[in-house]
Amino acid sequence: MATVTRRIGAESSATRAAMLGAAEALMRDEGYAAVSTRKVATRAGLKPSLVHYYFPTTDDLLIAMFRRGADQSDAMLEAALSAPDPLRALWDFFADTSRTALTLEFMALANHRKTLRSFMVEHSEQMRERQVELLSRLPALADSPFADCPPAGLSLLLAGIGRALVMEGGMGVVGGHAEARAFVEQWLERLRG
Amino acid sequence: MATVTRRIGAESSATRAAMLGAAEALMRDEGYAAVSTRKVATRAGLKPSLVHYYFPTTDDLLIAMFRRGADQSDAMLEAALSAPDPLRALWDFFADTSRTALTLEFMALANHRKTLRSFMVEHSEQMRERQVELLSRLPALADSPFADCPPAGLSLLLAGIGRALVMEGGMGVVGGHAEARAFVEQWLERLRG
Amino acid sequence: MATVTRRIGAESSATRAAMLGAAEALMRDEGYAAVSTRKVATRAGLKPSLVHYYFPTTDDLLIAMFRRGADQSDAMLEAALSAPDPLRALWDFFADTSRTALTLEFMALANHRKTLRSFMVEHSEQMRERQVELLSRLPALADSPFADCPPAGLSLLLAGIGRALVMEGGMGVVGGHAEARAFVEQWLERLRG
Amino acid sequence: MATVTRRIGAESSATRAAMLGAAEALMRDEGYAAVSTRKVATRAGLKPSLVHYYFPTTDDLLIAMFRRGADQSDAMLEAALSAPDPLRALWDFFADTSRTALTLEFMALANHRKTLRSFMVEHSEQMRERQVELLSRLPALADSPFADCPPAGLSLLLAGIGRALVMEGGMGVVGGHAEARAFVEQWLERLRG
DNA sequence: AATGAATGAGATTTCATTCAT
DNA sequence: CATGAATGAAATCTCATTCAT
């Protein structure tokens, strides 16, 4: 720890954290296209030049943002793995509004930011594998209609349904939401180990 | 309906169609932030001023783009309603790759384009209602594990799963895809009828 | 003439001419690196945006500058061809301070502006050919010590000596200038046809 | 001479040499405008701050670069003075490609770097004087058509012709080059002492 | 119905320089 | 010796929009 080489904008820097926080808030509130040097600086109460000092290119900033979010997701997933009711914890993870809105923005961004896309794909695959571990440990699934679906497929189903609820909900679409949510809750209850 | 205001640049104009086509290609290839007066004009081989002539503001252009896509989706959905196997037709609609990249961009856009968002919400709700009609007509569902889930909820589930397959697939994520797809296919087969 | 398609920033535009004039003055006074949107606009009393309207990229501006200068050079060379004493006219052309300072800047620029370089090479070759025509018509050369040197070589010698006088003179170097100039003048006198 | 002020970053420093080398490579490859603190540091694998430590201002760096190049030129010229065929050695010096790209950049730079310009003028005058010494020792010149031209003038002629060959050659201009070169070679041969 | 001209704003990036340690 | 942090300025380019014709 003492001999770590200090790089520009060390992870520990409070300034750096402020920028990432501001960038995240901007992306959440106004969409990915709003993450610009100027706006990030203004929101963080800093000078635009300083943002470029820490993140020379916009790609650098976006990748750092993604990494920070990915770390948070990883931590939540790890917590779910050792939770008393892992399936519910996983579902809560998928249905979490705060992270999923950002995920959507990053997915839209991935279309035209190659470096970012490769990070995202790699992380998605890793998360899916971790979810497979979680789902494989649930004996109750064997007696359910989902017995036919391997854990990896189940992970995708839950992710898709959760994302749909969050994305549509964020926009203001309500039709079918209560019903879908109740249906999932019902199965979570039945499958509780 | 009879009092429709005549707008500049009639819907039938070939020039107008060329612009919308160019804008759609741009959004698909480079993301929503690339849909600008200049780029649309360049891509369509027209002058930037002409784009403003047809679409005074960027919002006007985006709304027209959304409307055109929505009309296509509506047509596909209507076709599904009278298809021999409506459930499969609905699923094919959800799993269709051609529209999904654009849908994602529009969802990201909706974050900071209020007028666009209201159009999108309204259209989503209308589509869900039409899907409810479709799903309500399927007696086979009563014997399935989805009997507990009202049609509106089922519509959301299928939409979410389909979107997840297309969105992740478009990025290059593959884990769990074959499994999830097989699981859905299996149920489509069982519920045919 | 009447049916010429008007392009952005038609050659006839006074605004365009003002920009090119300002850019030329800047390059002469402060070097090629001083030719920037802002400085050109300020010097011409116009807005920076307008410069980009006429010359979308800096390369476009530099190429237009070069073309204008090349046209002037061409005209001067044509005049020399029909001058009473063509050799002296050619030498005056080479020793002309106003053009040669710019030529130097463009040569330095050519190092890292590929498109510009190809224009310059092509133009240089054309000018040399025209000078060969001029020099081939001088019978007096046959009796001189330069009889051994073909016209193309002579063109290069004169160009190099003229450029050296102008370049060094512009910087403030004086050693050998009077002597070299006198030597050339002496031969011009002797070779006068 | 005995009271030379000790400056930061001794001339002998390897770090300093690395910076000057990087700066020279940059100027050669991308033009004088590319010689910036950052780029020099990056190219030398050092931190930008360190460049400022050694060369407080950009002028300091450019002057050091010029001095280093001037020292090399001086050494070449001294070698020519004691060469078996001094005239040919002088010509080889003028026609040497390695230094000329940089010379051109420095000449363009001199336009707006006053301190640099005075260094360059002083050095040019010194070099010309040294060349005069060399040329004064050649008795063969007396029988040539260049007898009328004092050594200082001859120095300028040769310098200009050599520079023209190198500069144009570097750009890709070829017309007249073989002819001019052959003509000079012929005279070098005739005047060989 | 169409277009050229003009403009203010802002995005991205690079820069030289200063300062504290 | 050496470096990280910070900053104001400027360069390049793109944009939406307005206006006059």
What general form of chain A does the structure show? Answer: elongated
Integer average pLDDT of chain A: 90
Identify the biggest protein-protein contact and residues per side: A-B, 57 and 58 residues
Total beta-strand segments of chain A: 0
Could you state the oligomeric state of the chains shown? Answer: homotetramer
Enumerate the spans of chain A where pLDDT stays under 50 for 5 or more consecutive residues. Answer: 1-7
Q: Write down the Rg of chain A.
A: 19 Å
Percent range of helical residues of chain A: over 70%
Largest sheet of chain A: none
Number of domain modules of chain A: 2
The secondary-structure class of chain A comes to: mainly alpha
Number of helices of chain A: 9
Distance linking N and C termini of chain A: 42 Å
Fraction of residues in β-strands of chain A: under 5%
Question: Would you list the SSEs of chain A in sequence order as H and E?
Answer: HHHHHHHHH
